[in-house]
């Protein structure tokens, strides 16, 4: 019989029979940990009762089951990202860089959920209760009926939760928690995993919702990332550029709602305020049309959002010209540059290229391709796009401009914000123009010739 592997890589999950400093499978250093079984108890007893071991036709599971009960916080940006409010007994992970505003967001959220009738316990492992109270005062939340605790020992926390029986527990942060049966320092992968496991299981058993706060490590992942992300129902990231006042709460996994939904907040001295019309905010600093600046009509989650794509193209003093991107994928930029060169004969050799999504937004939609190409060309030719124009469309390697989803929503949002013309793919459907004038193109060559006369 093969010997059982007892060491696992916390990054990729590869198993080993002995410890080593580096994972052969994914190359991560110091990620291999001894696998300690969490429980020696037998299999859970309640495995579908009498149905155990039998397969059930999908149709027999019943379709009349009510949707899970939810509570709205009244902060609509937060509620939407959660998929329409907080689901009872769900487990949520909120990740983000240190100092980005997670504690502020969750303290405000805690207060709103408490006002909505939930019993909320906020446990801070990073600050003393007095500090949390001071923060609450600064945020104007000192009257909110939230119970505060400053604890890091998991056993003490579970005891508190056992006696208080809250509807929602917020654990800030999971990296500061430690379980005394695990022999490693707080913040280590085994501690984070043990703490997250105990808290989420406890929450599911008692019908309590739990929000775990997690700091993101340098690589952009929460310590013990895969492990914690798998244990929870919903994973949210709180992101934003340090120099900007905008903060974006993004769902990357949600068992109870759409992933990729965003909520937009603005940082103020009195805490986070909701931004219900992000397009207006992201475009607010825009003046007259300038070369290199193009407005993209994008979809974030269920909502259209207009953002400005800015490009700068300049002769490069380096033998290897620079390609710098903020808020978009650099591989995708390289692809657009290659397509422009190969299909339209427009080369960027010897030119530095900078691309920036204004307002600290991050765009991952391929629908932004055409807007990026337009920004690059506009910067290169030093020619601004006509005023009040939005652009969207996906570019394929052949140079074709491919249709994207939700054309009508994109156009409607643009129209609402005072735009009159849209440069779009050759859409099949007509009549969905939402009162906008559309200029359609089937391929990049046609687009370049018509708009830039190149
Ligand atoms: P904090 O919520 O402590 O960040 P995190 O928990 O992610 O580490 O916020 C960091 C600092 O920013 C803190 O000193 C408070 C301040 N801040 C504001 O002044 N206004 C705001 O709207 C936010 C979100 C933070
Ligand atoms: Mg904090």
Automatic annotation (TrEMBL):
Domain RecA family profile residue range list: 67-216
UniProt keyword list: ATP-binding, DNA damage, DNA repair, DNA-binding, Hydrolase, Metal-binding, Nucleotide-binding, Stress response, Zinc, Zinc-finger
GO molecular function, one term: ATP-dependent DNA damage sensor activity
Keyword Transferase tagged: no
GO BP terms in the entry: recombinational repair
InterPro entries listed in its UniProt record: AAA+_ATPase, DNA_repair_RadA, P-loop_NTPase, RecA_ATP-bd, Ribosomal_Su5_D2-typ_SF, Ribsml_uS5_D2-typ_fold_subgr, Rubredoxin_2
GO cellular component, one term: cytosol
PROSITE patterns: RECA_2
Chain span(s) of sequence motif RadA KNRFG motif: 253-257
Residue segments, region Lon-protease-like: 352-454
Domain statement: The middle region has homology to RecA with ATPase motifs including the RadA KNRFG motif, while the C-terminus is homologous to Lon protease.
Family annotation (HAMAP family): RadA_bact
Protein name: DNA repair protein RadA
Gene that specifies this protein: radA
